[in-house]
From TrEMBL:
Residues 1-21 form the signal peptide. This is Lipase. SUPFAM superfamilies: alpha/beta-Hydrolases (SSF53474). Gene3D superfamilies: alpha/beta hydrolase (3.40.50.1820). Keywords: Glycoprotein, Hydrolase, Lipid degradation, Lipid metabolism, Signal. It comes from Salix purpurea.
Length: 404
């Protein structure tokens, strides 16, 4: 049993972004450390770059305490004036730090602030910046009883409400990867979308059945998500001591890791080893085994639906045998949408993006970059020129946001 446990852990950690993937950039696992609770996102990445940063805590309806960080331009000439609010929502095994890993000229969080936007950065429950709850500890298995469904309907929804309340303005949403799953599910809800001005989705995902990442498909085929839950593992924490020790040994002749990152995300064209080094200093963040299970259900079934508990519990919770689908056509046709996606993205496959587009009433503005992979959209050294200027132009085209 112990041997099986180690094998399962090894495969899980080799498939998802880990120290092993870092070896592709010729650096070791020294940066994959457990983060102190005294460290904050503002102090670690944002204030040292010269930007104003304040920390906010939002309580969700199910009791989680999630972090929001508000970032202002380093440009003193703006005279304290705040522009339109924009909320950035990260992807799987990441947190709000993912938007600040390059230089101020390369990172979307900094770029939007310097363009005059009122930048708010969300970090979902379970990440290192958001491990609070009104009654539960992160050591409790109940703390990890959630998937991206709760992240969308509780975390993101409450973040949008908070930003809307503080700024008295409709909110611009930017999501990447899992952040786009959350955004699409949240925007279906009338009480959420009424607070949103527009949304920009990087690597948009609502369907995953054409995913081509070979190592992810291997995990799905082995039903490792079910094995992990059956073994009583509820938290996937890649910075725990046992997993750090295991990660350090994975590539020592046991598993071929040379092309691991490419095998997970697709071939990334445009970020370098220095950004990758900082990436692995802050990522990965914890997530729940249930979240992984929900994503694997999407891959196996080709659906964009609520969590599948099995027929009997589905009947109890949903009143039907199969979990209800999230209906993309319920997103208002009048809501402005922008989407950026890449030809080398093995997670947000072009075929699945096209299916998402067909499900919408409206017609989003699209940016397609043939050479971009999944991580390029947040880590590219030329992201401002390739992606962000286009996105910012979309926001400014809405009229009321024409000046910084």
């Amino acid at each position: 049993m112990e041997k099986l446990l180690l094998i399962v852990f090894a495969i899980i950690n080799s498939v998802f972004i880990s120290t092993s993937a870092a070896r592709e950039f010729n650096f070791d696992g020294a940066n994959l450390h457990r983060r102190s609770t005294d460290e904050t996102l503002c102090n670690q990445l944002i204030k040292p770059a010269g930007y104003s940063c304040t920390e906010h805590t939002v309580q969700t309806k199910d009791g989680y305490l999630v972090a929001l960080h508000r970032v202002s331009s380093r440009n003193k000439d703006q005279g304290g004036q705040r522009g339109p609010p924009v909320l950035l929502q990260h992807g799987l095994f990441m947190a709000g730090d993912a938007w600040f890993l390059g230089s101020p000229e390369q990172s979307l969080g900094f770029i939007l602030a310097d363009e005059g936007f009122d930048v708010w950065v969300g970090s979902v429950r379970g990440t290192y910046w958001s491990q609070g709850h009104i009654s539960l500890s992160e050591k409790d298995k109940e703390f990890w009883d959630w998937s991206w469904e709760e992240l969308a309907l509780f975390d993101l929804a409450e973040m949008i409400h908070y930003v809307h309340s503080v700024t008295s303005s409709k909110v611009l949403i930017v999501g990447h990867s899992q952040g786009t799953i959350m955004s699409l599910a949240a925007l279906i809800q009338p009480n959420v979308v009424e607070m949103v001005e527009a949304a920009a989705l990087l690597c948009p995902i609502s369907y995953l059945d054409h995913l081509t990442a070979p190592l992810v498909l291997r995990m799905v085929g082995l039903h490792l998500d079910q094995m992990v839950l059956a073994m009583g593992i509820h938290q996937l924490n890649f910075r725990s001591k046992i997993l750090i020790d295991l990660l350090d040994s994975i590539c020592d002749g046991h598993i071929e890791c040379a092309d691991l990152l490419t095998s997970i995300t697709g071939k990334n064209c445009c970020f370098n080893s220095s950004i990758a080094d900082l990436f692995f200093e802050f990522e990965p963040h914890p997530s729940s085994a249930k979240n992984l299970r929900h994503l694997f259900q999407m891959i196996r079934k080709g659906t964009f639906s609520r969590y599948d508990y099995g027929m009997f519990k589905n009947m109890e919770l949903y009143g039907q045998l199969n979990p209800p689908a999230f209906d993309l056509s319920l997103i208002p046709k009048t809501l402005p949408l922008w989407m950026g996606y890449g030809g080398h993205d093995s997670l947000a496959d072009v075929t699945d993006v096209e299916r998402t587009l067909k499900g919408l009433q409206g017609k989003p503005e699209l940016l397609y970059l043939e050479n971009y992979g999944h991580l390029d959209f947040i880590l590219s050294t030329q992201g401002k020129e390739d992606v962000y200027n286009n996105m910012i132009g979309f926001f400014r085209s809405l009229g009321k946001y024409s000046s910084s």
